[in-house]
Design brief:
- The protein has two helices and two strands.
- It starts with a helix and ends in a 9-residue tail after the last strand.
- By secondary structure, the chain is of the alpha+beta class.
- Strand 1 and strand 2 form a beta hairpin.
- The model has no long low-confidence stretch (mean pLDDT 78).
- Helix content is 29%, strand content 12%.
- InterPro entries: WAP_dom.
- It comes from Mustela putorius furo.
- This is WAP four-disulfide core domain protein 13.
């Protein structure tokens, strides 16, 4: 086998896109069921939620770096 063909075979095997685990149905359901990302820092990560009804009045269930939590979720203005 020529070295060029060997190199091409190696590149073909290692550079082909890897499949993402899970079915397309799971991906769609996850994007529908998971809450939106938090617009502001959650402050503390102690009030976890799965549904909006788990949060007290004035708080929203959203996804942050520490999980799905209840937070004020105020829009933060980053004027410079």
């Amino acid at each position: 086998m020529k070295p060029v063909l060997l190199l091409q075979l190696f590149l073909l095997i290692h550079l082909t896109p890897q499949q993402v685990p899970g079915s397309p149905k799971e991906h769609v359901m996850r994007s529908i069921l998971e809450p939106p990302p938090c617009r502001s820092d959650p402050g503390n990560c102690t009030q976890f939620c799965t549904l909006q009804e788990d949060c007290q009045n004035g708080l929203q269930c959203c996804s942050s770096f520490c999980g799905i939590v209840c937070t004020l979720n105020n829009h933060v203005n980053h004027d410079r």
